[in-house]
Amino acid sequence: MKPGDTLVVEARELDALFGALRERGHTLLGPTVRDGAIVLAEIGGASDLPAGWTDEQDGGRYRLRRRDDGALFGYAVGPHAWKRWLHPPAVVRWRARRDARGFVAEPDTAPPPRYAFVGVRPCELAAILVQDRVFLGGPFVDPAYRSRRESAFLLAVSCGSPAGTCFCASMGTGPKAGPGFDLALTEVVGDGRHDFLLEVGSERGAEVAEAAPHRPAEAVDLYAARAVLAAAEGRMGRSLDTEGLKDALYRHYEDPRWDEVAKRCLACANCTMVCPTCFCATVQDETDLVGSATERRRIWDSCFSQEFSYVHGG
User: Fold this and answer.
1) What angle do CA 197, 29, 79 make, to 5 degrees?
2) pLDDT at residue number 314
3) Run of H or E including 300
């Protein structure tokens, strides 16, 4: 098996894939139903997935409802973003303690967590690639992000149930999973079948796929998967004409419309906290009460707050 191969895995065999990931030291993170929403959390296996659930989303509205089938990934996108584990809300940059000779720095030698992201949607995959460009693509590479990113396994799932706010077809970021995944699934439910078209995206993805019972994909399987994606593209809740979009934004840089939007902003920063591509951060120093130990943390921040990037004196 090699990258580019396409297989069919039955839904009941997903746990074999998950078991192979656990054997390789990965902690599974994926969608599950909790507190009236489909959220991302640690999962034990396929039984924790939101089987038979979907979500209704539109402006200011989110509701769960039951589907009329047992689809495991029959929803759009939940309230969480994968950046929570790749670019965590708080990261210790360094620690120091006082001894007889002064302060001694203590490097963080703990190995990065090994996560397997289960159910990464195409739009979320595109968002991860944006953060890759920020943290890995320039002359200065962020070591905390790199260690987490290199150890993460991405099991993507193409979208078959877009929401009222979805427009990935306009942006070229869905509903089919784009580049960057280790394995990608397209769920096919109906006409007596419930299985997944599995695409291999990397060498380690091929190793994991070997662990699950599978068969080569045939023409009828490829057609069924394309039909799921075509139906999803036709059900997009919104669309956006992207022709000349960048230049249009620059031409309207001082448009009064921005002032109208800004008047409604409370600077609560919730939008940037849940945004899958936002990477703004600040640093915070903490010292114990006796002055014997200190640490510096990088924590999430928002460029929409008035204090963002302020330093002493300005």
Assistant:
1) 95
2) 56
3) strand 293-300
Helix-strand-coil split of the chain, %, nearest 5: 30, 30, 40
Residue 7, H or E segment: strand 6-10
3-state DSSP assignment of residue 231: helix
Alpha-carbon distance 106 to 163, whole Å?
Answer: 48
Angle (CA) 53 57 60, round 5°: 140
User: What's the longest Cα–Cα distance across the chain?
Assistant: 75
* Other Cβ atoms closer than 10 A to 16: 17
CA distance 232 to 102: 63
Q: Which long-range contacts does 140-145 make (Cβ < 8 Å, 24+ apart)?
A: 144/91, 144/93, 144/298, 145/86, 145/87
Full-model pTM: 0.92
Segments of 149-280 assigned E as strands = 153-157, 183-190, 193-200, 215-216
The predicted-structure confidence for 238-259, as pLDDT tens digits, reads as follows 999 999 999 999 999 999 999 9
Within 10 angstroms of residue 291's Cβ, the number of other Cβ atoms is 8
Count of residues making up the chain: 314
Helix (H) / strand (E) element for 73: namely none
Which amino acid appears at position 61 of this protein?
R
- pLDDT higher than 90, residue 55: yes
Burial 120-139 (b: 16+ CB within 10 A, else e): bbbbbbbbbeebeeebeeee
Q: Which residues contact residue 168 at a Cβ distance below 8 angstroms, ignoring those fewer than 6 apart?
A: 122, 123, 159, 162, 174, 175, 236
For 281, the 3-state DSSP assignment is strand
The tokens of 159 are what? 């979208």
Instruction: Check residues 295 and 267 and name the one with the higher pLDDT.
Output: 295
Q: Which residues pair with 66 in a beta bridge?
A: 53
